[in-house]
Design a protein that fits this description.
With about 270 residues, the chain is of the alpha+beta class. Helix content is about 50%, strand content about 15%. The protein folds into 2 domains: about 5-145, Sandwich (Jelly Rolls); about 155-260, Arc Repressor Mutant, subunit A. The chain contains 11 helices and 8 strands.
């Protein structure tokens, strides 16, 4: 079975509609962001942090994230397959790689992976998996050098748990009170922790995840708004239209017709 590897420049990500990377979403495969220049912020699991040059940010599959990519930011994104034999981390990490040798080594792996993908040579899958294993070893060694530090704040564990629940259930129509009950806390306490961790209350996190999926369905499919509303747990198409318009400044049909550069969320 073909194992999917993909290397994408951050400049290419930046050229897409802003909501695709700047609003909370998830990816079905593990991702490793490699920033070589510039700085900005990212959120993983409803926890917001900053990044700078020579920073590696790893995001496990199906983990909520959003990313700022300004015009000064350079780097690449490596998408890795769901291959348990690679022994990739199960939790996110964010480390600054200070060793020039380690920086060069990882950049070299990215170059080789890109070359293999482009060449379509014999035994390509085997070669890509070999480089995937080298990337896994590189990650393990960097985490060891950094004493396993992934810059996670223990006070933000509740926000991370909330984000994980939202990712699994944002299509269900559940509200913040439902998630708070699952976590054994009050909605007020949950919102306070989320605001401290990400600068956003719990409701904003939930709404942003839902609206990203709505944008994706509108732009990447021909689904009718009423079907999107049903898929995302709204009680009616009218309620979906009102909620979507409040967050984007456009009705679903208007948003669908916009060029990518104008597809911006009001709250973003």
């Amino acid at each position: 079975m073909t194992q999917v590897y993909r290397v994408t420049s951050l400049a290419k990500l930046r050229s897409a509609a802003p909501w695709r990377h700047a609003t909370l979403h998830s990816h079905p495969r593990p991702q490793l962001f490699w920033f070589t220049r510039g700085q900005g912020r990212f959120s993983i699991g409803a926890v917001t942090r900053g990044y700078g040059p020579n920073t590696a940010v790893y995001v496990p599959a199906s983990t909520i994230l959003s990313l700022e990519i300004s015009g000064q930011v350079q780097g690449e994104l490596l998408e890795l397959p769901l291959d348990p034999t690679l022994n990739l981390p199960t939790v996110p990490f964010h480390i600054r790689v200070t060793s020039v040798e380690a920086q060069s080594q990882f950049s070299g792996y990215l170059d080789k992976i890109e070359q293999e993908i482009a060449a379509h040579a014999a035994a390509r899958d085997e070669a890509l998996r070999a480089y995937g294993l080298l990337v896994s070893v590189w990650i393990a060694r960097q985490l060891t050098i950094h004493d396993g530090s992934i810059l996670r704040d223990r006070t933000h564990v509740l926000a991370e748990k909330y984000a994980a629940l939202v990712e699994r259930g944002f299509r269900s129509g559940k509200g913040v009170a439902d998630y708070a009950e699952q976590l054994g806390v009050t909605p007020t306490h949950l919102s306070r922790i989320c605001r401290d961790a990400s600068g956003r209350p719990a409701l904003a996190i939930l709404q942003e995840r839902i609206v990203h999926e709505a944008c994706k369905m509108l732009v990447d499919s021909d689904m009718a708004a009423r079907d999107i509303a049903s898929e995302l747990g709204f009680s009616s198409a009218a309620y979906f239209t009102r909620a979507f318009s409040k967050l984007t400044g456009r009705t679903p049909s208007e948003f669908r017709k916009l060029p990518p550069a104008q597809q911006i969320l009001v709250s973003g």
